[in-house]
Design a protein that fits this description.
Blueprint (H helix, E strand, L loop, with lengths): L6 H19 L2 E3 L5 E3 L6 H4 L10 E3 L10 E3 L4 E5 L13 H20 L15 H19 L4 H4 L17 H27 L4
Antiparallel strand pairs: 1-2, 3-5, 4-5
Helix pairs in contact: 1-4, 1-6, 3-4, 3-6
Amino acid sequence: MIPPRLAPLLEQFDFARERLTARMTGPVMDSGDGSDTPVGGPLTDEEYLWEPVADCWSVRARAAGPGPRATLLAGAGPWGRDAAAYPHPSPPPFTTIAWRLSHLGEMIALRADHVAGSRSLTRELHPVPGGAAEAVAAFDTAAAAWRTALGGVDDAALDTVGYSSYPHGSDPEDVFVDVVWWVNQELLHHGAEIALLRDLYRARPR
């Protein structure tokens, strides 16, 4: 039985997840009113790594080292995501689709693990996708894991502080319903950013 106050958050997550995946894979997405809006073809590797301005933060081959103003490449595997220890650079670097999608997929995957998994995964153990198709698949896998984790949540869990032990946020100090809300907020705002970058890439000067 889904707790009544969790139901609208689940509906919001499901719609935002489906809409973002469709926005990245095409050929159409839900415009918001149930009608189909063309989005073109699937996200390409060139578009995934496109840097529309100078000194972007992105996903990079680990052998190449971090980009401008970054001090490390986060994640595991042959690719990493530009990062820096606190305090972060100011003003914040502009980030590519690759950076935003990698961050989003990692954040959701790790939170799923720290709610209903081993509760041991860290950013250093999470692989960073080097290509668009891999990144979209990783996002979908993470979103499915998070949705499965929420399927086991009851009303008492929503009020439990530290129900999520995700170590890269305030989860250990937050009631779980606030964490669920925060994940939706991350999906909505990064999804909107990715959609806008797709529009800008399509309209870029040739």
